[in-house]
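Hello Y.,

Per our agreement to keep a running log of every chain we model this quarter, I'm adding this entry. I've kept the format consistent with earlier entries: sequence first, then predicted structure.
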Amino acid sequence: MELPKCIEVGITSFVVKESPETNNTKEETKLSLVHLNREISKAVQKSYLSDIYDMVYRLKNENIFKNSSTNKEFNDQVFSNNGLLDQIFNLLNLDDNKDSILNQCLILCFQVLENYCNLPSIGNFGYYSDNVKTKKLSSGSVLPRTIQ
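Predicted structure for the entry above:
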């Protein structure tokens, strides 16, 4: 695989071993392997990000606001590309060991919660008889709780 393609798919580290074509020495190969080992260790420590990425993906694609015209601003702010969920993930991916990064992530989480609590309604529901969608027995909306 050529280097531009590797970068395109997200490869962040690699090793070029010594050979007559590359003119790398055994010492250069050794240093490359030490570097690769460090990069693998970092990747293992950040493996939890895979689960967070999956959660963000599901939230963005399966949220109840996706087709809501009344909550479009909230949907765009939280679930869009480079929305608040993406920003949280990107910050954690950048560096999850710095308190300043974690604090920024918490602030973004609180911003999501605050905006969620300020919605006029969170969702609608209905109850149909015997799974027949023509005979609606009840309906309603879920409203956020107001704090007094």
